[in-house]
Structures are given as structure tokens and as C-alpha cells.
Give the backbone structure.
Amino acid sequence: MSAAPLSPLTYDQAGVNYDLIDPLKVSAQRAAAATAGLLGGHGFAEVAASRGESAYVVDVGPFYLASIVECLGSKALVADEMQRLTGRSFYGAIAQDTIAMAVNDLITVGATPLVIQAYWAAGGSDWFEDKARAQALVEGWKRACETCGAAWGGGETPALAGIVESGRIDLAASCTGLINPKSRLSVGDRLGAGDAIVLLAASGIHANGLSLARKLVERLPQGYLTPLPSGRLYGEALLDPTPLYAPVTEALFKAGIVTHYSANITGHGWRKLLRHPASLRYVIDQVPPVPEVLGFIQQQAGLDTTEAYGTFNMGAGFALFVPAGDAARCVEVAKSCGIAAWHAGHVEAGPKQLVVDSIGLRFDADALQLR
Amino acid sequence: MSAAPLSPLTYDQAGVNYDLIDPLKVSAQRAAAATAGLLGGHGFAEVAASRGESAYVVDVGPFYLASIVECLGSKALVADEMQRLTGRSFYGAIAQDTIAMAVNDLITVGATPLVIQAYWAAGGSDWFEDKARAQALVEGWKRACETCGAAWGGGETPALAGIVESGRIDLAASCTGLINPKSRLSVGDRLGAGDAIVLLAASGIHANGLSLARKLVERLPQGYLTPLPSGRLYGEALLDPTPLYAPVTEALFKAGIVTHYSANITGHGWRKLLRHPASLRYVIDQVPPVPEVLGFIQQQAGLDTTEAYGTFNMGAGFALFVPAGDAARCVEVAKSCGIAAWHAGHVEAGPKQLVVDSIGLRFDADALQLR
């Protein structure tokens, strides 16, 4: 393994310029918000607090309806390159990642995922010639639906030559769920000082920060085939699929634990712990172990603690905010679902801030601008 | 305008090879169907008859839940080329097309569209630099939501350099709706001999058959700028947005007209009139006027009647199967929504077949294999 490079690799260098995308996002968010009143024509109403949250929620009377669409992003490029290098297909794993992107967001509002639709846009019909890869995608997709307890409703498999690059595929998932009973709705009104923070284990990089992880390959003499300290290959470890956290949130409900708030730790890494709009201080005193591949990226890209935790999940894939008295049981419930979990910290009154003294990490209110 | 070419232009020549895609589709459909039982864990059940229909339906107790994801396809390439040639942005129009692809399918099962999610995957962050184009997309998307009475819930705007081609965008929409009251469910059990066929007017090519329409450009000396008989440009006419038929289906419900079945006329053109699995004979005796751009394509590509009506909508964008006594009122309701409509034919007992004697068109059961 080579030593850390002299110049750190930042996310901007990795090629995504949010300064260009963000004005459109803001404009789209405003236009979208202006359509809420249309639901009144059907006798329904949006849950306004869900605007800015990870999934959109509508009050349809007997329960709330939640929906979302999410894409995998550039992780498919890693799967393609690793297939070229090793002959193995990783499409079963990235199928799970794609569904995780949608489902792990949908459950933050308290929804039970019910229906998943597949969006697989290939760069031409010849993408489907590799039958083993296509079959891995189908089987991985089905397995992930099974884990989530959601029906695979159908989907769209267009061949988009001229739009999607030849030999590539754009994977996305939409998910519809219900918040039932309505008391499961979780859009932030319950979060407060004294709540415990329970972190659920990540499996690796998940599907965020891949642009940087791919950029890093250019600096590694053996590229994706670079061995990590454990002997596993860098590319293989990058492709560990994202855990599906829906079984945990369902089990918490059945155990009678009321989640006050939750956050899916995706882009922006631990800054996502500041997602809730209120002025609250989040104190973490137990830091989950860092997945090997993320420790490797941090070292090789020369990222300091702030950059690493502000970009990657660093071992915490999902945050649950629960009543302090339920924290230990919440950890046990997660473990019973096969997901490691830690009672990692608590919420305090105070100016909005994330504080992790054991690693010298601090994010203030301005570290995350999502709304 | 040049004369029809000697060799006809077929859809296979246009570059989409369904023989490669269809095995994956079948495999995915089987895997998807096998997940239906998972809904039982939540106390719900799928409406099995919706498998193979245009949207997936789940019985959630007080009403049915319908969901779908659909993509625009290659029409964005026409918008891009026309912007290059004329300086105008057509992204407002193709925003409506994208929503129409999802909504016009969703309503076939009797659903009221409630929430639309945007999926706009660009080939890199620089796509968003053209602010006028991005704004046209936002405004067109919002207008289409307004027409459908559906809330724009949110969406995903990834920059997917390396997957989506530079300078291009992959547009898709997911839509969730309710079938409420449950008596509005329309998955085919009511269709029968004696029903009237009402056809709703198309505006042009909509978003199907674009590969052929784009291929044709290579044969036209002035390409997209070729004038049609009316003087309108070929590229401009191609970009007439797809009508949103949701206001019609909502108005029909309010008027007390029970739709026995409906079909969105998309890919496979009029063969979609054979969508219902039953053995029934569909007789059309009034053929809607052919939109100028489709007549032009038929002539220039040298398509015979069977090829043209088996590929394009040829003026009929949506088919409603209603009780014979309601046909005239159904036409009036559509017109009151600003959509031209015709009581075009009827359903008979007999082997599965579509018959349009006035133009010598006949499609048998084997003309459409969707399930």
C-alpha cells in the first residue's frame, strides 16, 4: 500500500459541481411546493413538514402515503470495472444498493415500504446480451425486495442509446409506502433534548462518495485490485451492498419503540445528523468502528477527520433518535435483525451543532444546507 | 418534400432490438410476481390482475394503491437537436411528455394520480449550466402536475457523468395514485361484447416511435428543419407534447360513467387495443384524423398501414371501453376537457382481433405479446 499522497483529494476534484446543480434544485423545490394545494381537489393534503425530509408524505385519511424515487449513482461504474477485471458480476449487490437508496430514505418518515418499481435504463439493447449480469440484477433486486417485505411492482427497462452511454446502465428505484397507523409519522416534531442517538452499522461506502472513491483509483498502482490490509480487494470492498434498514424500523414499531426522528446517512456523511431544522446539539460519545474500505479511502485520499466524516458514513449508516429509556432496547432490536447498533450519543438543548470529542469532530449549523 | 424512399425504414433498423431485452423482461416479471406474497405480511394483497396491466395495484383496505415509473425515452435527443438548430428550448414540452408517460398509464387502472416524483439524471453537473433550459423543465413539469391535479412530491437530480452521456439528460417520472372508491378499479373484468370504443385524440407522435422518427432525419435533406405541408417544421411538430388524459378520466368518474377498460396507446401503436387478455373482437369504423407529423413519417419512411398503425398512435392517444349507452356522453366529457374524442367502434364476441375495414387494417391475437 502506498503512503498517503501529498495533496489531499477533495470532492470537488472528483467532478461533481453542486454550485451548478443547486440553483435548479432550489427552483424545482419551490415549484414542487407550490403544487401541494392540488391535493385538496381530491380531499387530501400534504404533510408540509415532509418537504425537505427524505420522502414526501400525503395525508389520505386512514393513513399517510409516502413515496420517493432514488438512483444508484455512479456505483454501477465500479461494478462494471470489477467485472472486467475479475469476470464476476456484482449486479446483485448494486441491485440491493439501488433499493437501499430508496427504501432507507422512505423509512425515515415512518413508512412501511410496500411497492418497489425498477428503473433500469441501459445504453442500448446490447446491454442485455450479458445474460449472467442481467440475471444477477434480477435476482439481487428480488432478494432486496424480500428483505424489505415489499412487493416488486414492475418497472421500466428502456434501451436509451444516445442518452445512456453504450455498455452502461442507469439504475434507479421508486418506492411507495404507507405510514400506518398514522402515529408512526416521523417528520421531526417529536425530536428534543434528552433523546438518545442510536447509530446503525454501515457495511462500507454504500452508494455515496463513489465519485471520490473512483477518482482515488487513479492514484493506486493496482487500482481496484489494490489489497486492503485484510487482503480484500479495494474494488470488491467498495461493492459491499448497503444494508436495508427497513426490517429494523418495522421491528422497532412492533416492539413499541417510538422513533422521534431518523436520518439516513448518505451524501454529506455525518453532517446528515444535523438534518432536523431545530436548534439542537448532537453529542456523540461512542464512535462506530470505521469500515476498512472507508479507513483506506481516508488515508489514501489524505482526508482529515472533518472531510472524511463530512463526506462518508464512516460506519454509521442510519441514525435513530429515540427516547433515552428505549436506547438499549433499540440496539437489541437492531441486532436481532442482524444489524450492529450502538447507543452512540444524545441530544441536548443548545445551538445547532454536532460534537464528537473523541475524534475532535465538530459540525455547525451551516455545515448542511439541504432546504 | 422528397418522395418516399424506395426501401422502407423499419423499427429494427432504428436500433432497438427487443429480442435482446425481452428475455430479461420476462425474467424480471416472473421474479416480480413472486414477491406479491410479501404484502401479506402487512395485511395487504396485490390485485393480481394488475400484473401485465399498465400500473401495479395493491389492495390496502379502504382503497387501492397504484404506482408506476416510466421514462421519456429518446425524445430528449430531438429537443436537444432542435435547441441547437433554433435556439429555443423544448424542455417544457418534454417535461409534459415524461409525466404523460407515467400518468396516462396510471389512469388506465382507474387511479387518480396524486403524487409525481421527478427523476432527472444528467450527464454531468454542467448540464445545469443552461439555466433557461433547466427553468423550462421545471416550469413544464409544474404545469403538467397542475393539469393532472397531482402534487409534485420531489425527486432526484443526479449528475451521472460516465453513465449518462455528456450534455444529455435521462428523464423519468414515478407516479403514485389511489383508486378511490374501490369501484373505480379497472383491470379488465368488466370488458365485454357490446362495449363501445371511444378514442381520445393524440397530439402527434407523443413519446413512442421516436427512434424511427429520428432515424428518418438522416433521409431528409433539411433534417429536423424540413417543412411539413402546413409549413411547420418536422422537429417542432415531433415535439408537440403528449396530452395528459387524467382530467378526462376524472371527469368521467364525476359524470358517473363507468369505464370498463382502457388502454394507453403507446409503443406498438394500435396493437395496444388488443391489450386485454380476453378473446374479443374490436371493430373500428371511425378512424381519427392522422396528425400531420405521423402522416409525414408514414409517407417518408414508406410504411404501409399495418406498419404505421402497429408502431404509432396515428391520432388515437388513448382508448376507453365504455357501456354503449355512455359513448356519446363520454365523447362530450372528453371534449369538455379540451380533448377531441370519437365514438370509434365497438367490441364483439369472437377470436381476438382488431379490424378497421375502412383502412384495410387487421391485427390478430399474436400481434401483441406483452405478458
Q: What stands out?
A: Chain B has two domains: 44-184, 196-367.
